[in-house]
Amino acid sequence: MEIIKDISGIKDRLSNEKKAGHNIGLVPTMGYLHEGHLNLIKKAVENNDVVVVSIFVNPTQFGPEEDYEEYPRDLDRDARLAKKTGVDYIFSPEPDEMYFADHSTFVQVEELTDRLCGAFREGHFRGVATVVSKLFNIIMPDKAYFGQKDFQQFVILKRMVRDLNIPVAMERIPTVREEDGLAVSSRNKYLSERGRETAAVLYKSLKKARSLIKKGENDPEKIKNKIEAMIQKHDLTEIEYIEIVDPETLKSREEIRDKVVIALAVYVEETRLIDNIYLDREEIPHA
Ligand code: AMP
What we know:
Elements: E1 2-4, H1 7-19, E2 24-29, H2 35-47, E3 50-55, H3 75-85, E4 89-91, H4 95-98, H5 124-139, E5 143-147, H6 151-163, E6 169-173, H7 193-214, H8 220-232, E7 237-245, E8 260-268, E9 271-279
Bound molecules: adenosine monophosphate.
């Protein structure tokens, strides 16, 4: 495995790989790798000749009040885990390698970016879409792997790829969870012991919602109220949003039918956590 920090270096290596007829899988990350990332990497290793993991804490997707400086970083540890999992190249550029000082072009996906997290994190998805399109142009992967945990991100990037005719297959991989159901995240390390215990209520409330829907409840307000009540019982939590949306448009659903995603963002102590579940047709009884 090689760690490459410059754009020309990774392009050289990959152009040789392509000449050798190898197809390329890309897993974009911000590093501090955990089981969620490693699961994406495993899928990429299974299905591609060559796997590139990008590790880049992307400044343009953090708001001024967000945790860009504090975001955890540990390239040596990441490299060990990546190597063990079968990665061929880590692409880990510094910000000034990725962005010219006078960088002035951004990728803006309309509407989808206004909903859910986008309503609270201005400019976040513009930063994500911009950096991922840059990574696609640099790496030119055949397949790219993303987690269900960031469902809105996946929907936005998939739309971007379609709208801009980017020749990459987009793969969505299920959320990896801790034993108590909490979605694995680099940000979980910010939680105190009590915060960490509290955080399990997010997935617990989503599971409860799933079981109510399976039993025939089809009023989104009732479901949202139930989730809210479960979370609010814990004094360390502050709900940002709970939404039940169409998985393609991300618009709120008036009634639970067909397929839906239930998504939420909740502060536990100072840490903003997100989670979601996808219910497909088979799980929703028809009225
Ligand atoms: P990040 O490093 O947080 O930007 O995440 C990089 C990729 O890993 C994104 O596609 C995330 O959706 C994915 N990811 C993060 N956490 C998980 C998880 N618990 N399960 C599955 N995928 C995840």
